[in-house]
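Data deposition worksheet. Section B asks for the primary sequence of the deposited chain exactly as it was used as input, without tags or linkers unless they were present during the calculation. Section C holds the resulting structure in token form. Section D is free text for depositor observations; keep each observation to a single sentence. Incomplete worksheets are returned to the depositor.
Section A, Depositor: J.P.
Section B:
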Amino acid sequence: GMTRAALPSADPALDRLDRLVTAVGRDRDMTAFRALFDEVAPRLKGFMLGAGFADAVAEDLVQDVLIAVWNKAAGFD
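Section C:
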């Protein structure tokens, strides 16, 4: 996989996601989590649908992933 260091640091979308994940992890910020969910969920679901998952399965997986983000965000670097 691609490491964080390999990604361009001048990408405002990535910087925004970094700030949202940091706010979720450090502050348990529900507003930041909602913004992160709104930003990431459609893309993640599209990726899963493209990989051949059924719609309901993709929806469940997206929710599982984002719940894991909420629970583990404080440990993300």
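Section D:
Helices lie at 12-27, 30-50, 55-72.
The two ends are 16 Å apart (CA to CA).
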